C-alpha cells in the first residue's frame, strides 16, 4: 500500500461520481471497524470453517509431477470451497458487512464466469438480503449452469446486452444501479479492483488462501515453496495467495489470458498488450486504443475476460516483485484436459491458465523444487463450453 490512501504506488485511487463517495466512505469505515470487531471476526471465521469448509487442502499432484518431471507441484484446492471457488471468501465477508455493520437491505454484484454471482447469491441467502446479479449476455450463454444456480439461491440475474456483453459491461450496469440505490444497497465487487477501499477490502477477505498455503507447505515439506502461480483476471485469487509471501524469498507468477495470441488482438493480457489508464474507478493497466476507448477482450475463460487488472498487481509488476505472463486459449484447454486425465480433477478454465504456466516451467526446475498452483475454482461450469469448442454435443 502506498503512502497516499487508496494507492499502490501510483496505481489505485477513487475515480467515481460524487454520488458514490458517501457510500464508499461508509464502506471504508465499516471495513476498518470490522477488522477490529471481535464479534464480526468470530462469526466470519466460524462461517469460513463450518460453512465454507476451510481450510481447503493443499494437495500434492503426484501423477502430474511425475508426468512433467522436475519440480513437485502442489494444488491449493479452492475448488473444494463451498460453491466451488475462492469467490465465496470475499462474497461472504461483504454480505456480513452489508447486513451487520451497514444495515443494508439489498446487495448487488456483477459476474463473468458466474462463480462470484453464485457466491454472492449464497451470501445473500445466508444472511437474508435480497440480491440482484448483473451478467453479460455472452457470459450468460457460456455459463448457463451458474445462472440457474443463482436463480435457485433466490437471486435475480439481470442480463447486460451492451458492449462486448461480458464482465466490464456488467460492472458498468452494477455501478449505475448502485449510484441510484446507494442508501439501501451494497455493491459486492468481486475482485481486487475498482475504487478504494475495494482493492484492500477484497484482499483482506481473500488473504486466508495464502495464510493457509504457507502453513500447510511448511507442515508438509518443512520449507517455503520456490514458486507460486495463479491466474489473474481482476486478480483476487492471486492476491489472496501472494499476500502471505510478499516478504519471503519466493518467486511469484501471475498468468493472464492470452486468448488467441497477443498479436491477434483477441486476448485479455493487460500487461502484455495494455497501457496505464483510468477505468471503472481506479488507475491501473487497461486495454484501450489510442483515443482511450476500451478495447473488446477475448478469452476462453469468462472469468479472465476483462479489460483491466487490480491496481496492486500493476504496482507489483512495476516493482518486479511478481512476474506476469499469459497463457493462450489453446494452452489453457490442454492444461484443463491434462489435469482431468492425470489427477481426476477438472479445473476451472481460469485455473487452467495457471496450470499451463506450471506445465511450461516445472520440467526446467530441479526435483527438490516446489511449485504451488492456486486452483481457484472447479471446472463443472466450463464442461459444456469445452465440449462446444471441441464440437461435441451434450
TrEMBL record:
<comment type="pathway">
    <text>Amino-acid biosynthesis; L-tryptophan biosynthesis; L-tryptophan from chorismate: step 5/5.</text>
</comment>
<keyword id="KW-0028">Amino-acid biosynthesis</keyword>
<feature type="domain" description="Tryptophan synthase beta chain-like PALP">
    <location>
        <begin position="53"/>
        <end position="377"/>
    </location>
</feature>
<comment type="subunit">
    <text>Tetramer of two alpha and two beta chains.</text>
</comment>
<dbReference type="InterPro" id="IPR001926">
    <property type="entry name" value="TrpB-like_PALP"/>
</dbReference>
<dbReference type="InterPro" id="IPR023026">
    <property type="entry name" value="Trp_synth_beta/beta-like"/>
</dbReference>
<dbReference type="InterPro" id="IPR006654">
    <property type="entry name" value="Trp_synth_beta"/>
</dbReference>
<protein>
    <recommendedName>
        <fullName>Tryptophan synthase beta chain</fullName>
        <ecNumber>4.2.1.20</ecNumber>
    </recommendedName>
</protein>
<comment type="similarity">
    <text>Belongs to the TrpB family.</text>
</comment>
<feature type="modified residue" description="N6-(pyridoxal phosphate)lysine">
    <location>
        <position position="87"/>
    </location>
</feature>
<dbReference type="InterPro" id="IPR036052">
    <property type="entry name" value="TrpB-like_PALP_sf"/>
</dbReference>
<dbReference type="Pfam" id="PF00291">
    <property type="entry name" value="PALP"/>
</dbReference>
<dbReference type="GO" id="GO:0005737">
    <property type="term" value="C:cytoplasm"/>
</dbReference>
<dbReference type="GO" id="GO:0004834">
    <property type="term" value="F:tryptophan synthase activity"/>
</dbReference>
<dbReference type="InterPro" id="IPR006653">
    <property type="entry name" value="Trp_synth_b_CS"/>
</dbReference>
<keyword id="KW-0663">Pyridoxal phosphate</keyword>
<keyword id="KW-0057">Aromatic amino acid biosynthesis</keyword>
<comment type="function">
    <text>The beta subunit is responsible for the synthesis of L-tryptophan from indole and L-serine.</text>
</comment>
<keyword id="KW-0456">Lyase</keyword>
<keyword id="KW-0822">Tryptophan biosynthesis</keyword>
Amino acid at each position: 500500500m502506498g503512502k497516499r490512501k487508496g494507492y499502490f504506488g501510483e496505481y489505485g485511487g477513487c475515480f467515481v461520481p460524487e454520488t458514490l463517495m458517501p457510500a464508499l466512505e461508509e464502506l471504508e469505515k465499516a471495513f476498518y471497524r470490522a477488522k477490529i470487531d471481535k464479534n464480526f471476526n468470530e462469526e466470519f471465521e466460524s462461517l469460513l470453517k463450518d460453512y465454507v469448509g476451510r481450510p481447503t487442502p493443499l494437495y500434492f499432484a503426484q501423477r502430474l509431477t511425475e508426468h512433467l518431471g522436475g519440480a513437485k507441484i502442489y494444488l491449493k484446492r479452492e475448488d473444494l470451497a463451498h460453491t466451488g471457488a475462492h469467490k465465496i471468501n470475499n462474497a461472504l465477508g461483504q454480505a456480513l458487512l452489508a447486513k451487520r455493520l451497514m444495515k443494508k437491505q439489498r446487495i448487488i454484484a456483477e459476474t463473468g464466469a458466474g462463480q462470484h454471482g453464485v457466491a454472492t447469491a449464497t451470501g445473500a441467502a445466508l444472511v437474508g438480503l435480497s440480491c440482484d446479479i448483473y451478467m453479460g449476455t455472452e457470459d450468460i450463454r457460456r455459463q448457463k449452469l451458474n445462472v440457474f444456480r443463482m436463480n435457485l439461491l433466490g437471486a435475480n440475474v439481470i442480463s447486460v446486452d451492451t458492449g462486448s456483453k461480458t464482465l466490464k459491461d456488467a460492472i458498468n450496469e452494477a455501478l449505475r444501479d448502485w449510484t441510484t440505490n446507494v442508501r439501501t444497497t451494497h455493491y459486492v465487487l468481486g475482485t481486487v479492483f475498482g475504487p478504494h477501499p475495494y482493492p484492500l477490502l477484497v484482499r483482506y477477505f481473500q488473504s486466508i488462501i495464502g495464510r493457509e498455503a504457507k502453513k500447510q507447505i511448511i507442515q508438509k515439506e518443512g520449507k517455503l515453496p520456490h514458486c507460486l502461480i495463479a491466474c489473474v483476471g481482476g486478480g483476487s485469487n492471486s492476491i489472496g495467495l501472494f499476500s502471505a509471501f510478499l516478504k519471503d524469498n519466493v518467486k511469484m507468477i501471475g498468468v493472464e489470458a492470452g486468448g488467441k495470441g497477443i498479436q491477434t488482438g483477441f486476448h485479455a493480457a493487460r500487461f502484455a498488450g495494455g497501457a496505464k489508464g483510468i477505468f471503472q474507478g481506479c488507475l491501473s493497466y487497461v486495454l484501450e486504443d489510442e483515443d482511450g476507448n476500451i478495447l473488446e477482450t477475448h478469452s476462453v475463460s469468462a472469468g479472465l475476460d476483462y479489460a483491466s487488472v487490480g491496481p496492486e498487481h500493476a504496482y507489483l509488476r512495476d516493482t518486479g516483485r511478481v512476474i506476469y505472463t499469459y497463457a493462450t486459449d489453446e494452452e489453457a484447454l490442454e492444461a484443463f484436459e491434462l489435469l482431468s486425465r492425470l489427477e481426476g480433477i477438472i479445473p476451472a478454465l481460469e485455473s487452467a491458465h495457471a496450470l499451463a504456466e506450471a506445465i511450461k516451467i516445472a520440467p526446467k526446475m530441479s526435483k527438490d523444487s516446489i511449485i504451488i498452483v492456486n486452483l481457484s475454482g472447479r471446472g463443472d461450469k466450463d464442461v459444456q463450453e469445452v465440449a462446444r469448442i471441441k464440437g461435441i454435443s451434450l
